[in-house]
Design goal:
About 10% of the residues are buried. The longest helix has about 45 residues. The protein has a 3-stranded antiparallel sheet with strand order 5-4-9. Strands 1-2 form a two-stranded antiparallel ribbon. The radius of gyration is 71 Å and the shape is elongated. The chain is built from 3 helices and 9 strands, in the order H-E-E-E-H-E-E-H-E-E-E-E. With about 240 residues, the chain is an alpha+beta fold.
Length: about 240
């Protein structure tokens, strides 16, 4: 038996290559065939969706009808002029006449007699006094009377104390002089403060004037009958003996 050649001939190589090529082509065909149907199916679904989208009906919105114009307001008819009011006529005065029967037996007829009033005359002029009492005189309405006789009064002194002439001023021979002290009076007549308004140019005389002003009594200032705070000028006259 002859030995088998270890080397493959060229014809065998070609047959082996063709066989493998057929096997590989079958495998590729099966793989491609299984993929292409899915691709075709996917393309067909996309075309179906496009057809369905294009076949949707178009909705046309109808515009609303215009608002009708309201009718014009009718003009009211003119009001009739009311008839003029009739003036009321005053009733005429009636005189009551008293009927008296005659005292004579022979005559049964009555006579109308007029009784004159106790006061007045036949012509209608009043005479005598009536039975009504006197009418009290009333003051005409106007500004109400104030609660006091003098509603507005400045502060004043009620009891002025005379000052003493200082001996020191007598010794230097100042002579007669006058000092004015400004006094502040409270609502109750109390003394609030004092100060020299017009000086004598001598301290002893000015101090004597201040003492006299503080020892005096005052009445307060009144505004609409109400006591308020006010000022008063106290005059101190100095006369040497």
């Amino acid at each position: 038996m002859a030995k088998r050649n270890r080397y493959i001939s060229t014809g065998e190589r070609v047959r082996s290559f063709i066989g493998w090529a057929i096997v590989i082509s079958l495998i590729i065909h099966l793989a491609v065939g299984s993929v292409f149907p899915n691709i075709n199916k996917h393309s067909e679904e996309q075309e179906t969706e496009k057809v369905q989208i294009t076949k949707k009906p178009t909705i046309i919105h109808t515009p609303p009808p215009p608002t009708p114009t309201p009718p014009p307001t009718p003009t009211p008819p003119p009001q009739a002029t009311p008839p003029p009011k009739q003036q009321q006529t005053q009733p005429k005065l009636k005189i009551n006449v008293m009927h008296q029967s005659s005292s004579s037996k022979s005559s049964s007829s009555t006579e109308n007699t007029y009784n004159a009033p106790a006061n007045g005359t036949e012509n209608g002029a009043p005479a005598g006094q009536g039975t009504a009492g006197p009418v009290a005189a009333t003051a005409p309405p106007g500004t109400p009377k104030p609660a006091c006789a003098n509603p507005n009064v400045d502060a004043t002194v009620t009891n002025a104390v005379q000052p003493d002439y200082p001996e020191s001023a007598k010794d230097i021979g100042i002579g007669p002089t006058t000092v004015q002290v400004e006094v502040t009076v409270g609502p109750s007549g109390n003394l609030i403060g004092t100060k020299i308004y017009k000086s004598s140019n001598n301290m002893a005389i000015d101090q004597a004037a201040l003492r006299a002003a503080r020892q005096s009594s005052y009445s307060p200032k009144l505004v609409d009958c109400q006591p308020v705070e006010g000022d008063y000028l106290f005059r101190a006259d100095f006369q040497p003996d």
